[in-house]
Design brief:
Layout (H helix, E strand, L loop, with lengths): L2 E7 L3 H8 L7 E4 L18 E4 L4 H4 E3 L2 H10 L2 H10 L4 E3 L4 E4 L4 H14 L3 E3 L4 E6 L5 E5 L3 E9 L14 H8 L4 E7 L3 E3 L10 E10 L2 E12 L3 E3 L1 H9 L8 E8 L5 H7 L8 E11 L7 E6 L16 E3 L6 E3 L4 H20 L1
Parallel strand pairs: 1-2, 1-10, 2-7, 10-19
Antiparallel strand pairs: 3-6, 4-20, 5-6, 8-9, 9-10, 11-18, 12-15, 12-17, 13-14, 13-16, 14-15, 16-17
The chain binds flavin-adenine dinucleotide.
Length: 361
C-alpha cells in the first residue's frame, strides 16, 4: 500500500496551481476524471485567458456566506502576488476594460501547459480517467480515496473538483457529497454568471448590444447595479451585467426579480426605436423594464454559486473537524463576478492550501 503525501482531487486551475507550488520532496498525485486538465480554464475569455482583475475587492466582488473569512484568505495571496508570479515566469499580460487582466499571447492553453509543466517539474503526477467517488478517513489518520476503478491512500487530501456548471465538460457535484459524508455545512450549488429568459419578448432586438445602467430588483429592493454591456438574445438578456445579476440572485427564483435597463440618448439605437414603435429619435432617455422568467440552463452557466461554507474551515482552508482535508476553488462557497474574479479565487485558494501543506510537513 503506497500512501502519498498529498492527493489532489481534480486537475482544474485550483488543483494545478496548488500542485505547482508543492515542493519536490512531497509525493503528490492528482486524480482527474476527464481526459484533459483544466477544461474550464481553456474557455476563459474565448481562449484568451482573463486570469484576474486589478479592481478586485474581496468584500464586494464575491457572493459568500462568510465575507470576513473570504477577505482574510485574499490577504494571503493577492492579485498583485499573482501578477508577480506571471512576471517572474515571463508570462506577458495586459489590462483591458474594468480591470480585466488578459494574457498577451491570447492563448490560455499555453498557460495551462505551463502549469502542467510546473506540476511535473515539482514531481507531481496526474492520473486521468480517475472518477473519484468517495473519501474515508481511517482511525490511523490517513485517507482512503475510492475512484470508479482504483483505490488510493493519502496523508493529506485537497478537494478541487469544482462545481457542476458546464456539465458537458465533465464537471460534477461530488464536492457536496464529500461535504455530506463529513457533515460539513454547504449551500447547494446554483447556476450563476448565466443569461436569463425574460417575461418581455425581446427577440426583435436579438443580436444587438447596448451599454446602459442595468439594475436588478428583488421585489422592490435594488440588489445589484452596474454600467456594462447588455446583450439581447432571442430568449432574453445576456452579457456581463446580466451574468453578475444572476450571481446576485443567490439561487432565489428568477420570477422574484425585475431588471431595469436605463439607456441614455446615445445608446438608443434605431433598432430599439423600431421596437418601441418610434420612427424618430425623440427620446432623451429610455428605461426598459422586464420581469425575469428563468435562468438559462446549467450547460450555459460559467460558474455555480454555493459550495462548502467557510465556517468549518481554518484560514488555511483545512476542514477543522477533518485535519488533513483541504478545500479549494469553486468547491468553496466563494463565487466571484465575471471578469477574472473566479480564477483569482482559484489561484488564491490553491496557493493558500499549498503553503499550509508545506507548513504541515
Ligand atoms: C465557459 C467558461 C468561461 C469562463 N471564463 C472565465 C474567465 O474568463 N475568468 C474567470 O475568472 N473565470 C472564468 N470561468 C470560471 C472558471 O473557469 C472556474 O471558476 C474555474 O475553472 C474553477 O476552477 P476549479 O479548479 O475550482 O474547478 P474546475 O475548473 O471545475 O476543475 C475541477 C476539475 O475536477 C475534475 N473533477 C470533477 N469531478 C471529479 C471527480 N469526481 N473525480 C475526479 N476529477 C473530478 C474536473 O474534470 C475538473 O478538471 C469560466 C468558466 C466557464 C465554464
Amino acid at each position: 500500500m503506497q500512501i502519498r503525501d498529498v492527493v489532489i482531487i481534480g486537475a482544474g486551475p485550483s488543483g494545478l496551481f496548488c500542485a505547482a507550488h508543492l515542493p519536490k520532496n512531497k509525493r503528490v498525485l492528482l486524480l482527474e476524471k476527464s481526459s484533459i486538465s483544466a477544461s474550464k480554464l481553456l474557455m476563459s475569455a474565448q481562449g484568451r485567458g482573463n486570469l484576474t482583475n486589478t479592481l478586485l475587492h474581496p468584500l464586494s466582488d464575491y457572493q459568500t456566506s462568510h465575507p470576513a473569512f473570504v477577505a482574510k484568505i485574499f490577504q494571503s495571496y493577492t492579485v498583485r502576488d499573482f501578477l508577480a508570479f506571471l512576471t517572474a515566469h515571463d508570462i506577458a499580460f495586459h489590462e483591458e476594460d474594468n480591470g480585466r487582466i488578459l494574457l498577451t499571447s491570447r492563448k490560455v492553453s499555453l498557460f495551462r501547459d505551463f502549469l502542467l509543466h510546473q506540476v511535473s517539474e515539482q514531481g507531481g503526477e496526474i492520473l486521468y480517467h480517475q472518477d473519484f467517488q468517495r473519501l474515508e478517513k481511517t482511525k490511523q489518520g490517513y485517507f482512503i480515496l475510492h475512484t470508479l476503478s482504483d483505490v488510493f491512500y493519502a496523508k493529506q487530501v485537497v478537494l478541487a473538483t469544482g462545481s457542476p456548471s458546464f456539465p458537458q465538460l465533465g464537471s460534477s457535484e461530488i464536492a457536496l457529497q464529500v461535504a455530506k459524508d463529513f457533515q460539513l455545512t454547504f449551500i447547494p450549488f446554483y447556476p450563476a454568471l448565466v443569461g436569463v429568459e425574460t417575461e418581455k419578448n425581446l427577440s426583435f432586438l436579438a443580436g444587438s448590444s447596448v451599454v446602459g445602467k442595468g439594475a436588478l430588483f428583488h421585489r422592490n429592493t435594488l440588489v445589484y447595479q452596474q454600467v456594462w454591456p447588455v446583450l439581447f438574445t432571442h430568449w432574453g438578456l445576456s452579457g456581463p451585467v446580466i451574468f453578475n445579476s444572476t450571481l446576485a440572485m443567490q439561487g432565489l427564483p428568477p420570477e422574484q426579480f425585475t431588471f431595469k435597463l436605463s439607456l441614455p440618448k446615445a445608446a438608443i439605437t434605431k433598432r430599439l426605436l423600431a421596437y418601441l414603435g418610434f420612427s424618430a429619435p425623440k427620446l432623451a432617455h429610455y428605461t426598459l423594464t422586464t420581469k425575469l422568467h428563468r435562468l438559462r440552463p446549467l450547460t450555459e452557466a460559467k460558474v455555480c454559486g454555493g459550495g462548502i461554507c467557510g465556517e468549518q474551515l481554518t484560514e488555511q482552508l483545512e476542514v477543522k473537524t477533518v485535519p488533513g482535508l483541504f478545500i479549494t476553488g469553486e468547491c468553496l462557497d466563494v463565487t466571484g463576478k465575471t471578469g477574472g474574479y473566479n480564477l483569482q479565487r482559484c489561484w488564491t485558494s490553491g496557493k493558500v492550501v499549498a503553503q499550509a501543506l508545506i507548513a504541515n510537513s
